[in-house]
Every structure is written in structure tokens, then in C-alpha cells.
């Protein structure tokens, strides 16, 4: 399974005995998927794509509930405190499930408070600017920022989310200053960018591509090591300036359950999601959004998440970034 890490792939044999049990569990009550962000972003899109499939698969209602705030911590905490019965799931992401574990001084949960069930999608962030910004390339934006230190503002879907940390890393690497304006999700942030109330942001490509294609914002670079097929003319940030040679960020999303959720429950949901990932509708949606499927067994997904926790922990410690919650 080359979509995840090689380390994760080594865990595949461990999952095989559980496959036979995957169909043993079925929910006896409605399922809810908690999205720790506002409507309109990739997390929300993933959840609303998955919910009707699970509803049909299990014959139970499956509802999506948005619980935004504190960089995803509020929604995550709600799921952590829920009964571990498979009826409350989290559509988590790189922010509260990886970056936040090292970024915040105190959290109401730890890395073992959730069970990774299955990924949904991953993809780069994209640097987008309001049309009024006098920059058509990333180096031109850097020059503009240096001429106006601390005068421009950049948005994000919340403190501690991938677009926020991508923006922080970008400013540090290029020696620029800008005001960070956090919002309760990618959707509200994008709306403020289109309105011109913020000047730029690193948006998830999976949620921001429609604004780019509609000409409402201008894309200058993607955060991944390579260009994205959906935007072949937009360079990778590391192509554009020597200072960004090591710049490589991909954001990701996936389903988590409260710690203590029985393995047959995890296996059943993972098996359902494997079928979901295989549908043409989901594959087409990921292509349309500029993302890549993040399917993996529970072991593969857990290893992937653990690797992300370690990677961002090292970045945050190296930069001395620490924040208080709230």
C-alpha cells in the first residue's frame, strides 16, 4: 500500500486475522461524525462524502456535526469523551491529531486518546492571494511582504492547523512578517480572502481549488515537494526560492474513534471505508479536489499518524513554538 509509509505497510499481516471479523459488528443506533471545523473545508467535505455511504452500508442514519474552535481541539475533545461504541467518530486531521499535540502546552487529550481507524484524503496546501495583492509569483509576494513588514495579514482555518504552521514556516524561511488571522475553519477563511479582508493564506488545495479555478484568488505555489496534477502551472514552493529548498508539507484527514473502541468495531468501519474509497464517486471527488486517497488498514493508518506526530513535534521543538490553548 504505497499511499502510506513503508513502516505502516510492514504492519499489514497483523491486520489480516481481523478481516474475517470486520462484518461482525453493526451499529444498532445512528452514527454521528464530528468535524472539528466549520462547514466548507476539506474535513467537512470528507465527512459529508462518507456519511451517506455509511448510512447506506449499515442501514442506520449517519449525521455530520460541526464542532469548530480552538484549532480543532473542541471537536476532538467531544469525541474523546464519547462512549467507545463506534457511534461517535471524529473526522480528524493533521492539526489537532498531530501538530497540536506538540504545539499546545496543555491539551484535554493525548496521542493515545483516539484510535486511528482509516484515512480519507491527503494533499498539499496552496498559497493563494487576493487579486489586489501586487504579486504574481511567490518571490514577488516575499518582496512585497519585506517592503511592508507586519502590514499584510494571512488567514488560516485555526491556530495549530496545517495552513497556520505552513504560513509560520514560510515566514520564518523567507524572513518575512505578517499578521496571522485564525478562523473557525477553511470555509470562513476563504470567504474573508475573497472579500479582501485578508491578503493571503495557505489553503488546503482540496478545499481551495474551486476558488482558484473560479478566478476569485490567485495561486502562487503549492506546499508539496512536487507540483500537483490539478494545477500543473503552479510551482512547488521549493522550486521558487533557495530559502524554501526543504519546504514540503502535505495535509491529511481521516476517521478516529475514542480510545477503547473494540477492535471488531474498528475493523468493520475500516472495511466499509475501504469499499467507500473504491467507489468511482470518491475517486473522482479526490481528483477534482487535487487530493490523493489515504486508505490504509488500522495499523497502516496508525503508523502514518504516529510518523506525522513525530515529524511535526520535531519541527515545533526546533523552532521553539509553544502556545496556550484558548
UniProtKB/TrEMBL annotation:
Pfam families: TctC. The keyword Signal applies. Keywords: Signal. Residues 1-22 form the signal peptide. InterPro entries: BUG, Bug_dom1. PANTHER family: BLR1237 PROTEIN, TRICARBOXYLATE-BINDING PROTEIN. Belongs to the UPF0065 (bug) family. This is Tripartite tricarboxylate transporter substrate binding protein.
Amino acid at each position: 500500500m504505497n499511499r502510506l509509509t513503508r513502516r505502516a505497510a510492514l504492519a499489514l499481516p497483523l491486520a489480516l486475522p481481523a478481516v474475517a471479523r470486520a462484518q461482525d459488528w453493526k451499529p444498532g443506533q445512528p452514527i454521528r461524525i464530528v468535524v472539528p471545523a466549520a462547514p466548507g473545508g476539506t474535513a467537512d467535505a470528507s465527512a459529508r462524502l462518507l456519511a451517506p455511504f455509511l448510512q447506506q452500508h449499515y442501514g442506520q442514519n449517519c449525521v455530520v456535526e460541526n464542532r469548530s474552535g480552538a484549532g480543532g481541539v473542541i471537536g476532538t475533545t467531544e469525541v474523546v469523551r464519547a462512549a467507545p461504541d463506534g457511534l461517535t467518530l471524529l473526522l480528524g486531521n493533521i492539526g489537532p491529531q498531530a501538530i497540536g499535540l506538540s504545539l499546545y502546552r496543555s491539551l484535554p487529550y493525548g496521542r493515545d486518546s483516539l484510535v486511528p481507524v482509516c484515512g480519507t484524503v491527503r494533499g498539499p496546501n496552496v498559497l493563494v492571494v487576493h487579486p489586489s495583492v501586487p504579486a504574481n509569483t511567490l518571490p514577488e509576494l516575499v518582496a512585497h511582504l519585506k517592503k511592508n513588514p507586519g502590514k499584510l495579514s494571512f488567514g488560516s482555518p485555526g491556530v495549530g492547523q496545517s495552513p497556520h504552521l505552513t504560513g509560520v514556516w514560510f515566514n520564518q524561511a523567507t524572513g518575512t512578517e505578517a499578521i496571522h488571522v485564525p478562523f473557525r475553519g477553511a470555509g470562513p477563511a476563504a470567504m474573508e480572502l475573497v472579500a479582501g479582508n485578508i491578503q493571503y493564506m495557505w489553503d488546503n488545495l482540496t478545499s481551495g481549488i474551486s476558488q482558484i479555478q473560479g478566478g476569485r484568488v490567485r495561486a502562487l505555489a503549492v506546499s508539496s515537494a512536487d507540483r500537483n496534477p490539478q494545477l500543473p502551472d503552479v510551482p512547488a514552493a521549493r522550486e521558487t526560492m533557495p530559502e524554501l529548498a526543504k519546504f514540503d508539507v502535505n495535509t491529511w484527514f481521516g476517521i478516529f474513534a475514542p480510545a477503547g473502541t473494540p477492535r471488531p468495531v474498528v475493523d468493520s468501519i475500516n472495511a466499509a471505508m475501504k469499499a467507500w474509497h473504491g467507489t468511482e464517486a470518491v475517486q473522482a471527488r479526490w481528483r477534482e479536489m487535487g487530493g490523493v486517497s489515504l486508505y490504509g488498514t488500522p495499523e497502516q493508518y496508525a503508523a502514518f499518524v504516529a510518523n506525522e506526530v513525530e515529524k511535526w513535534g520535531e519541527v515545533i521543538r526546533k523552532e521553539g513554538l509553544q502556545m496556550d490553548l484558548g
